[in-house]
Amino acid sequence: MKILKFKGKMSLKNKLLLILGLFLIVSAIATIIVYTTNEDARNWINVYILKKEVTEEDVATIELDVDKSQYIYAFDKYISILCEGKLSLYNSYASKESELDIIISNPTYDTNGSFLGIAEKNGQRVYLISDGKILWDKRVEGSINKINVDRNGNVSVITTGTSYKSVIITFDKGGNELFKTFLAYTIAVDTDMSIDGKYLAVAEINASGALIESSIRIIDTEKAIDGDAINSVVYKYNADANKIITDLKYQEKGQLVCIYNDSIHIIYDDKDRVLTEFTKSTQIADINLKSNILKADEISTGLFTARTDIILKNILTDAETVYSVDSSVKEIVSFDQISAINLGTEIHFINLNGWLEKKYTSSQEIKEIVIGRSIAGIVYRDRIKVLVF
Question: DSSP characters for 275-333?
Answer without folding.
Answer: EEE--TTEEEEEEEETTEEEEEEEEE-SSS-EEEEEEEEETTT--EEEEEESS--SEEE
